[in-house]
């Protein structure tokens, strides 16, 4: 296998390892730190830019390997249709090797490109999931705080209502007391008047009258 196809195979192996790390059941805190580092690190951004260029060359290799596979397949069809099978064992072995290598290179570069798309999509899906979980946690905390505030406000409203009821009762008692006080004063005045009339008729003098 040539150097560039060897590098393509190593890139495919690295993609498979990265994919296993991304989908591994890591704890939420570790996964959050990992994805925040991958999405915010300038070094990772430079590496991603270099990988984009690398995948461009892999795409060129894929097109070349695909053309070679089609060419070998077309030669096999021509040989089969012409009715002249390959008699030389070495030529037949060489043809089978060419066919195998062309298919291998096509599958190698194709899977490398396909896995790069899967990795990119998986990364952004998990990153969106982490952001959604963070927003959900914040919303849950705000809801809990608002619920506690609502409970506190309800308690305050109940206390205010109780104080209003007590104030109304106190005012009612105060009005009753004023009424009783007025009635007592009126009864005292009426008693003095009756006592005065009684004293006039009997000719007696009351010490209270003198006062």
UniProtKB/TrEMBL annotation:
This is B-cell receptor-associated protein 31-like-domain-containing protein. Keywords: Receptor. It comes from Irpex rosettiformis.
């Amino acid at each position: 296998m040539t150097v560039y196809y060897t590098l393509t195979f190593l890139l495919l192996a690295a993609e498979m390892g990265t994919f296993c790390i991304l989908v591994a059941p890591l704890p939420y805190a570790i996964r959050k730190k990992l994805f925040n580092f991958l999405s915010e690190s300038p070094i990772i951004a430079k590496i991603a830019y270099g990988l984009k260029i690398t995948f461009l060359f892999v795409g060129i290799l894929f097109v070349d390997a695909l053309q070679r596979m089609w060419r070998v397949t077309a030669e096999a069809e021509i040989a089969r249709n012409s009715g002249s099978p390959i008699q030389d064992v070495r030529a037949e072995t060489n043809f089978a090797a060419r066919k195998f290598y062309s298919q291998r290179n096509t599958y190698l570069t194709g899977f490398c490109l396909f896995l790069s798309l899967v990795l990119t999509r998986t990364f952004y899906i998990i990153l969106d999931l982490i952001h959604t979980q963070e927003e959900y946690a914040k919303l849950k905390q705000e809801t809990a705080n608002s619920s506690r505030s609502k409970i506190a406000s309800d308690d305050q409203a109940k206390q205010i209502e109780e104080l209003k009821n007590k104030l109304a009762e106190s005012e009612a008692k105060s009005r009753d007391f004023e009424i009783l006080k007025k009635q007592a004063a009126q009864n005292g005045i009426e008693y003095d008047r009756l006592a005065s009339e009684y004293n006039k008729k009997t000719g007696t003098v009351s010490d209270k009258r003198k006062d």
